[in-house]
Amino acid sequence: MVRIAVYDDNKARRESLQALMQLSPGYEFAGSFENCTNIAEDIAAVQPDIILMDIEMPVLDGIGGVRLVKQHYPHIKVIMQTAFDDDDKVFAAIQAGAEGYILKTASINQITQSIDEVMNGGASMSPSIALKVMRYFSSQPPTQNYNLTNKESETLKLLAQGLSYKMIADKMGISYFTVNNHVKKIYEKLQVHSLGEAVALAHQQKLV
After folding, report:
1. Using CA atoms, how far apart are residues 114 and 109, in angstroms rounded to an integer?
2. CA atoms of 78 and 7, how far apart (whole Å)
3. 72-96 residue pLDDT tens
4. Does residue 121 surpass a pLDDT of 60?
């Protein structure tokens, strides 16, 4: 059972996500909060496995919230929620350690798929964010060989293009399970803990 907490200053949005979690098999609603002011204490109280985090919140926003989560509870996954495809803020959140992001207009299936992918060791990243990461690190020289296999390198390249696990599986003609195994090996070899870190390092080291 995956325990999910929600941070959003919109009460209707919090209640909607609570209803979704309570009606979806395999998920358990851990709690919801209107901002990240007391996030360390909140997490200690409700102990979520994953957080759906709004970017725009008063007092302390989602980007600051991600930093605190990763500082105190690095094992907890974070998916950012945003009303707009705001590259700069989403990129800042990924740099802070978020595993992915979803638009608030995402369907129920997209939300649950994003949660499942993150809990399986990956994340969701749009092509626009992947491109921004690529541009940010494209001028950095390569410094290390990480001994990725051909399949792992291909998987990493497709992740950097913003493809989901399912899309990668279809494109490579392999199973979702195999993609997940490739991603776990990539994380181990690159010594990273999130998709944002993996893609950033891949571009920095000229691996894609």
Report:
1. 8
2. 10
3. 998 899 998 887 766 677 777 877 8
4. yes
Q: State pLDDT tens for residues 151-168.
A: 998 998 888 887 888 889
Give me the long-range contacts of 41-44 (CB less than 8 A, separation at least 24). 42/5, 43/5, 43/69, 43/72, 43/73, 43/76
* Cα distance from N-terminal residue to C-terminal residue, the chain: 36
Question: Please, are residues 31 and 7 in contact by the beta-carbon 8 Å criterion?
Answer: no
Q: 181-201 burial string, b = 16+ CB within 10 Å, else e?
A: bbbeebbebbebbbbbbbbbb
Question: How far apart are alpha carbons 71 and 112 in whole angstroms?
Answer: 26
Q: How far is CA 197 from the centre of its chain?
A: 10
The token duo for 45 is: 């109280």
Instruction: Quote the CA–CA distance of 201 and 208 in Å, as a whole number.
Output: 10
What are the φ/ψ torsions at residue 31 (nearest 5 degrees)? 155, 165
Fold classification of 130-204 (topology level) = Arc Repressor Mutant, subunit A (1.10.10)
How do the domains of the chain map onto residue ranges?
Answer: 2-123, 130-204
2-123 and 130-204 agree in CATH topology: no
Smallest Cα–Cα separation from 54: which of 96, 89, 19?
A: 89
CATH number for the region 2-123 comes to 3.40.50.2300
Close Cβ partners of 104 (under 8 Å, ≥ 6 residues apart): 13, 81, 82, 83
Helix 165-172 to helix 150-160 angle (10° resolution) is: 130
Amino acid at 133: V
